[in-house]
Amino acid sequence: MNNVLAGLIYKSCAVYLDDIVVASPTFEQHLLDLKEVLGRLQSAGLSLKLSKCQFCLSELTFLGYRVMPAGIHPDPDKVRAVTEFKVPTTTKQVRQFLGLTGYYRRFVQDYARHAEPLFALTKKDVQFHWDDKCQAAVDFLKHSITSAPVLRFPDFSRPFFIHTDACDAGLGAALMQKDEDGKDVAVAFASRAMHKSEKPYSTPEKECLAVIWALEHFRPYVEGLHVTIYTDHSSLKWLMSRPNPSGRLARWSLRLQDFDFSIIHKPGERNKVPDALSRNPLPDVDAPIDLLPPYAVIGSMDLRALPSVIVSDRPHVRQLQLEDPVTGSLLNQLESDQRSGEDNQDLEKYVVHDGLLYFLDPKTKCGLHPLKQLKLFAPTALRGYLLKYYHDHPTAGHLGIAKTLARLRLRFFWPHMNSDVKKYVVSCCSCQATKPTQRKTAGLMVPIQPQRPWEYAGVDYVGPLPRTQRGNAYILVFVDYFSKWIEVSAVREATAQVAANKFITDIFARHGAPSYLISDRGTPFISELFEHVLSTLGTEHRLTTAYHPQTNATERVNRTLKTAIRAYVGDKHTSWDKYLPQICFALRTAPHESTGLSPSMMLYGRELDTPLDLVTQPSWEGLSDPETSYSDDLRASLRDAHEHARLVLEESHKRQKHYYDLRRRTVSHEVGDLVRVKSHPKSDASSNFSAKLAPLYTGPYRISKKMSDVNYCLTSVDTGEKVGVFHVANLQPFYTWASALSGKHAKLKTAAALDLSVPDCSLPPALSTPGRIDCDTVDTTSTVFSNAPAETDFDCTDTVPLFVDQNSFQETADNALETEVNGSPPADNGCAVRGSYNLRPRRVPRVTTDWSVNRWTNPFYTDRFDLK
Description:
By secondary structure, this protein is an alpha+beta fold. The protein has a five-stranded mixed β-sheet with strand order 8-7-6-9-10. A five-stranded mixed β-sheet has the order 18-17-16-19-20, with helices on both faces. Helix 2 (about 75-85) packs antiparallel against helix 5 (about 130-145), helix 4 (about 110-120) crosses helix 5 and helix 18 packs parallel to helix 19. The longest helix is centred in the last third of the chain and has 33 residues, at about 630-660. It comes from Oreochromis niloticus (Nile tilapia). GO terms for molecular function: aspartic-type endopeptidase activity; DNA binding; DNA-directed DNA polymerase activity; metal ion binding; RNA-directed DNA polymerase activity; RNA-DNA hybrid ribonuclease activity. This is Gypsy retrotransposon integrase-like protein 1. Its EC number is 3.1.26.4.
């Protein structure tokens, strides 16, 4: 039906399965709409039953609702079914009653609070017991639905108001409007329970979550419109005012940017509707998608507020150019034709066309379009908007540095555009989360060098496999890193108790306690029971990092085992455990490629006899030495085997490391650095989630400790709680706007508007940075310049002299560095005075910067250096 009426749905009709409703503002339009709908049905060969059709009604019943000009109301027939519902005597009947009344929960204020005794009866392992509270809940719900208010239709010409509240129990919201008399009328109510992971949030975070959830829940009503939000927590505005949100707060800020809203504090005693809803929430229920107006998110805003400048028309752009010191000065000179001789050469690069300042680009081939050579000279206040538009906007596609820069160069010009674009793209949160890296995997090999048998051992489970006739579904594997000896057992379940028992019987009782046992972070191996057994026996437990199984040598044995089993079971997949002893024997007696000796020779100093050896091998009777020499021979054999193995293993590790490192690169992070972690999501068809479309990285996280050259401990940026230990191969630097080009090889270009008559001046206040997280920037009023030079605390590869006057200055392309101040301000505050300064930047802790000419008003330049 949706295909037949495509283009008409939500325009002149609504469809649910085989029910069609045609709605029109006037009778004349209604006739035209009916004709169009009926024509579509006739063309599709569909017929209607006349007895089920109703025409030209002012009100009707549809999907359990009575639709009237004033609004909607529960269907009287359904209301009658509620009032005649008998007192439930079983849990199933309670669920039926809640399902019937819950369909009309949007009409019942405090539905969840009054229905709480009934919800309690539906919980797992709760014995059914009907009491006075349950009966009171049924009576109240029946009465409330029979006297339910009429929910008004949304009037999109009037402003919407959303009242929100949150508590430990849940979230509540009410969508309201004012009617013709100025009275508040309800459009819809909503509530939901607080998820387990959300309950530890602080009160401001819960209030913020309520706002986000309410806006997204009522998105079909409020998207594209300004909405006022009333909340009972005055500190909710902290999120929008935070200078550097990150992690969860940054993601929340991103979600909020889809909406245009303002927040008003309203105490809880005056915010009763959502307060009651939040304290008595309903479980989440998905609405039928066919009942919702179609909409699509074609893009999302950045992590902060919109750019401070929105281009509206050409006069607006001209006004921005006039307000900018650089472009304004050039405009005035060109339009008044007041130029000195030495300025003519520079001014020839610019032209005024239609009242706007353009840069005349000699590199552009104009062809048939001579105006292509003209590039708009973007004033400082406009550059943030342009960067955002040509990178973040859906029509920009979040393309890379080269493409973004090329598109901007086709139309605009400003000094240091390359650097600005690179910083903006590199620090883009969306790009960092979704784009794969094209570089080699990080982290060189760090081989484990055991010196004796069972010094290092590994353990892992294989499975689940098809359950055999003996009831086994898993394989528990232990491997000695030195001798390569394996202990393999078929087990029924992969639990900590099984692993602990097998460690005692198969490893400790036969070979003694290993010094170190390496395992992954599976639940059986990180349990208290398994850890207690290892600590009691004196074995140190070492865990591999998440999603880096190369540390555990057992993984390689697992692959060999599965390959061997596959070769023998054929199509009898429930008999695999019968072959484990034979396969285990084969691996123990075969020379290992890394040592050149068999595990049995490495462990026992002799080869294990096979059944065929008893027939084919010569007898040792009469050839052997006296018994007293056997122990000496065995000791010598073991000593030679171990010494040979150490040398061969060392060479093998060097060879493996050489070829492994060819595909890797050296990366070193420092404590305090921000990183993002590679994600490994799994698709979930039930929730329409595809791993192919999921972000590739999560974060940012902060490095709290360097565990080794390749392993790092990470903590949450928001809470400081430990996230886990990760291998460097799963980490990538997280670039903030401040750190995008900072570091050992960053090119620093300093610029500032200076007054030569004042030796010292202070930094302007920091401005927010739209679309970027800057966790390292802090407010400071450090001195910019003083007469005392300072040493450079980090490598600076490019420092340029400046042309300075009291009002504005330009940077030169000459990389020569002057050592003293020359020049003085003219008496008439002219623009021709040239001064050069020896600028020695000093990095201030937790302060980063990139200054440009007179960019104090640019919201994209918040980073600062303390230059002394």
